[in-house]
Amino acid sequence: MRQAGEEIRIASSRLRQFVASLWQHAGSSETEAALVADHLVQANLAGHDSHGVGMIPSYMASRRQGHLMQNKHIEVVKDAGAVLTVDGHNGFGQVAASEAMALGIERTRQLGMCAVALRHTHHIGRIGHWAEQCASAGFISFHFVNVVGDPMVAPFNGSDRRFGTNPFCAIFPREGQPPLLLDFATSGIAFGKTRVAYNKGVQVAPGYLIDHHGAPTNDPTVMHETPYGSLLAFGLHKGYGLAVMCEILGGALSGGQTTHESSLQKSVEAIFNSMTTIILDPKAFDAPQMQEEAQAFIDWAKASPQAGDSPILVPGEFEQAQRAARLRDGVPIDANSWQQILAAAREAGMPEAELAEYYGQVS
Ligand SMILES: NC(=O)c1ccc[n+]([C@@H]2O[C@H](COP(=O)([O-])OP(=O)(O)OC[C@H]3O[C@@H](n4cnc5c(N)ncnc54)[C@H](O)[C@@H]3O)[C@@H](O)[C@H]2O)c1
């Protein structure tokens, strides 16, 4: 277990500028660097540090190993009207997913719905970001994602890692209010949350991890040092079942890959995702009371007498609250992660004088 260090806090606008500059020094175009920076900082703002700027050292390692390709764009490999299949050519997932969603949104404007299957892309990070892109166009979306060849999670009743943390996401836009946003890993906790706990030197809650013998443990070290243990899927056979569907709908239906012996990314730092997205225009349905009915349900659910100290939330409210607090107070980053990010910035070629400017922003 690592030793805990001092947490730093940095204004999100300054952090975005730092990350964009880092990727430009590493060779990304201005647009690519901005897309990656915005996505990572938005993940931190949403309270998902597991998918924020703490991913930079992993992306840099993937670039060093020649897996992450910079300045790539998606290619439409099959256009079947309401179904688009696109290839990300192992480029930055932040570019590929943004371009894929833009194509799907355009097609949904024409047809009322569209499925976009994205394959061969580097890590696409926080899936909620892509759902929010659809919701800002006024659309509902569902996202089934697999993590190709990077097993972390044991099957229900199994004892070793066989598949990825395969996230599922759905969004419902609301009039005059933030959308309902459900966005989670099908593992009980995201792998990145074990990285954050490992870097902070703290244990994770019970019920999420097993060691290499298949025995329950709370120590995140089992995910970061050999002999490796596994994450468990959330909700017993139900979470495991959803993970299976994400693997097949994300990996197989997109023409990408599922996880099995011959697709394992052995000794590879890169994270590759495939994602099948279904986008729906709510206006294409015969439901003039849709918004009122949605609100009536939310009011009804929230009227339940609170069982303890925590309020009743609907999906998406956690992220809204985090965003408000972090826009006000800055983004917290643990000391170990910040040191790793600064090392990645040096590797990208950021001059010491520029790095020193950012030290000055940190309290
Ligand atoms: N790209 C990848 O390969 C990959 C893999 C796994 C996870 N991820 C991402 O990691 C992020 C974190 O995933 P996670 O599993 O740790 O998320 P999580 O366990 O924090 O769950 C988040 C979801 O639960 C909702 N929520 C939180 N508290 C709630 C409450 N009290 N009541 C009702 N709803 C509540 C949130 O609004 C959100 O929809 C996600 O953004 C996910 O997309 C990405």
Automatic annotation (TrEMBL):
Gene3D superfamilies: 1.10.1530.10, Hypothetical oxidoreductase yiak, domain 2, Single helix bin. It comes from the Bacteria. GO terms for molecular function: oxidoreductase activity. The keyword Hydrolase does not apply. Keywords: Oxidoreductase. InterPro entries: Mal/L-sulf/L-lact_DH-like_ah (IPR043144), Mal/L-sulf/L-lact_DH-like_NADP (IPR043143), Mal/L-sulfo/L-lacto_DH-like_sf (IPR036111), Malate/L-lactate_DH-like (IPR003767). Belongs to the LDH2/MDH2 oxidoreductase family. This is Dehydrogenase. It comes from Erwinia typographi. The lineage of its organism: Bacteria, Pseudomonadati, Pseudomonadota, Gammaproteobacteria, Enterobacterales.
